[in-house]
Amino acid sequence: MDEDVQGFINHIDRVATSEDWTDAHRLQVGIRRLVKTALLWHVQTGHTHADWASWSVALVTNFSRRLSFADWNRLIQDRVQQPNESGMEYALDKFRLCRLSPTPLAEQDAIPFLINGLAKWEHVAAMTAAAPANIPAFIARIQQLEQLGVSARSDVAPNRQMNIPPPQPPDLAAAFNNFSEKLVAELATKLESLTVSRSVGRGRGGPPGAARPPMECWLCHNTGHKARYCPTRPENTSAGH
Fold first, then answer.
1. What is the total count of domains within the chain?
2. Which of 4, 16, 52, 138 could crosslink 27 through cysteines, CB 3.0-4.6 Å?
3. What stretches in the chain show pLDDT beneath 50?
4. Which segments constitute the CCHC-type domain (predicted)?
């Protein structure tokens, strides 16, 4: 990921959050700060994105290198909620990373990744019990939990003797299912192509290790020598062969 482009978007989001900007205000500020190639991109293409969410994602997509699945997964796993970072700030930033997925990722599919990175076990438990349907619902829910003072509780897990079950981690296997299937299909195609190319490369020589037939003289039809060395030829007889 191009940290300059993503950092540009993150900076506007942080200022907008602290100053209570509207999405329209964010979009205006973002456009005014574009220069050179980025400004040309907005004039030719970017202006078709009328809201901040789609415009910012399009900007990052156009000016970032395409991530492999392994690199993207590493970014997702490493992005966790930081100390003193609000749930909304964390959700917006991590969802932007989700949108950089090598394959399309719907909002609902991104929710497990957001839940997995929350700092408070109480928040993880509450979100897992009733997962939000989309990003706005996730943000509204995390803000509600923070306002209720859940974030002020101890980070220590509840006492097992109180018969309170521990929070269940989100099922990330389901979230990765689509990616795994596509990767397996791609590998199968490459292996099939490699097998065909090796088969063609053997040519007419037969399989490796096959024994060659003995040489046969076309003059006397005996084996063991070529026609040029055949003893029936006069020149070979006179030479003592």
1. 1
2. 52
3. 1-3, 150-151, 153-154, 156, 158-162, 164, 204, 240-241
4. 217-231
**Within 13 Å of residue 118, how many CA atoms lie on the same side as its CB?**
29
Task: State the Cα–Cα distance between residues 203 and 198, nearest whole angstrom.
Answer: 9
Nearest CA among 34, 32, 26, 33 for reference residue 50? 26
pLDDT at residue 163 in the model: 53
Nearest-5° angle of CA 177, CA 122, CA 173? 10
Q: Is residue 228 part of a domain?
A: yes
Q: Which residues contact 109 (CB under 8 A, 6 or more apart)?
A: 175, 178
C-beta of residue 84 within 8 angstroms of C-beta of residue 48: no
Q: What value does the CA radius of gyration of the chain take, rounded to a whole number of Å?
A: 34
Nearest in space to 137 (alpha carbons), one of 91, 176, 106: 91
Rounded distance between C-alpha atoms, residue 128 and residue 123, angstroms: 8
Per residue, what are the HEC states of 188-229? HHHHHHHHHHHHHHCCCCCCCCCCCCCCECCCCCCECCCHHH
Q: What share of the chain is helix, strand, coil (3-state, %, to 5)?
A: 60, 0, 40
- Condensed to tens digits (0 to 9), the pLDDT of residues 161-194 reads 445 455 565 566 666 666 667 666 776 776 776 6
pLDDT at 161 (0 to 100):
46
176 token code pair: 């990765």
Tell me the residue range of the domain where 238 lies.
216-241
